[in-house]
TrEMBL record, chains A, B:
GO MF annotations, alphabetized: DNA binding; DNA-binding transcription factor activity
Region ranges (Disordered): 150-172
The protein's name in its UniProt record: DNA-binding transcriptional regulator, MarR family
Native organism: Pseudonocardia ammonioxydans
UniProt domain HTH marR-type: residue ranges: 11-147
One BP annotation, GO: response to stress
Entry-linked PROSITE patterns: HTH_MARR_2
Keywords tagged on the record: DNA-binding
Superkingdom, taxonomy of origin: Bacteria
DNA sequence: TAGTACAAGATGAACGCTCAACCATTCCGG
DNA sequence: CCGGAATGGTTGAGCGTTCATCTTGTACTA
């Protein structure tokens, strides 16, 4: 690493707008979801993915990936939601390491009760402020970023620093 | 509230892309800042605002607003950074309720040491994935969202639920 | 000049997330 | 078929954020 590729004026403004929009939107959405349904966005995401899955069941690792969460996060979250009775865990028949997370009826009810207000808050936070063209452009840009970040992302996408420490036994 | 204004297919995809890009970008940037400088993004933001202010000094509330943080967050964060010797707090001469936060020389050094790698990570996460046109469009959309969210935002922008609880003594 | 409303900050508990370990199981090369 | 590496998932400590509350100080109004 030698010299920094600084941001020009335009890029600075773009980055600031990105940051601001990001914070404003997720604050608003998160806060409202918390108030209305008593759960953070990450939990909602998990419940949503499960509800779309066959048998409302997913392996923990698949769940983590599809909800863009680290394994650790999902593990904690599912444990918590199991206590609430929204999810049950069973061990996977074909791979004895694996765990299956299944959405319970109760969990589905809670999710469905949360959806309408959540959707409304997303609309207010994002779409009510955009023209149709702006929305299309936003989508294109976001998808480009995601695509760029999903190929060879420096170190793994999901984080979680690997099974052992940063460099354990990895020599030779 | 009667019927929900659901998201159509296009809006769904836009929202998912927004969420994904948001998570991917802030994960990457946050993680790298933490690794390289040992501070979260929110702290960086605070230090950055202070460094741009006259006398590297800002009132807590102004600092909170300009860093898009809640008062409470800034209070905790500044307390922590004061222990690290990056910031000092003085009471405000003109308003004895107020506190002034000033960036120390040490704090400025730490910030400046953190900047280059942070900027690089932002470039990699965002700008390397976008054409110039996409970047301009992204900026426009983000600014539209921010503008929309900054006027009459339902309840106050910064959060923090007000001086007293949700409805304390407020009756008649 | 009270008295009441409001603003600025601080604070502690609750909570979710991350990081670094750790155990169990499966995969794979010799 | 054995032994090391990789995979799947969990766990606990540490930390930052939020929420509700409190204290102190200012502003407004009667």
């Amino acid at each position: 690493m030698e010299h920094t590729r600084w941001l020009d004026e335009d890029e600075q403004q773009t980055w600031r707008a990105f940051l601001a929009a990001q914070r404003l939107v997720s604050d608003k959405v998160e806060r409202r979801l918390q108030a209305a349904a008593g759960m953070p966005q990450a939990y909602y995401e998990i419940l949503a993915r499960l509800s779309e899955a066959p048998d409302r069941t997913l392996r923990m690792s698949v769940l983590a990936e599809s909800a863009l969460s680290s394994r650790s996060r999902v593990s904690h979250a599912v444990a918590r939601m199991e206590e609430s009775g929204w999810i049950v865990r069973r061990s996977c028949p074909t791979d004895r390491r694996g765990q299956l997370a299944e959405l319970t009826d109760e969990g589905l009810r809670v999710l469905e009760a949360a959806v309408p207000d959540h959707v409304e808050s997303v609309r207010e936070a994002v779409f009510d402020g955009l023209t149709r063209d702006q929305q299309a452009a936003l989508r294109e840009a976001m998808e480009a970023i995601v695509a760029h970040l999903s190929e060879r992302p420096g170190w793994p996408v999901t984080g979680d620093s690997g099974p052992d420490g940063p460099d354990a036994a990895r020599a030779s």
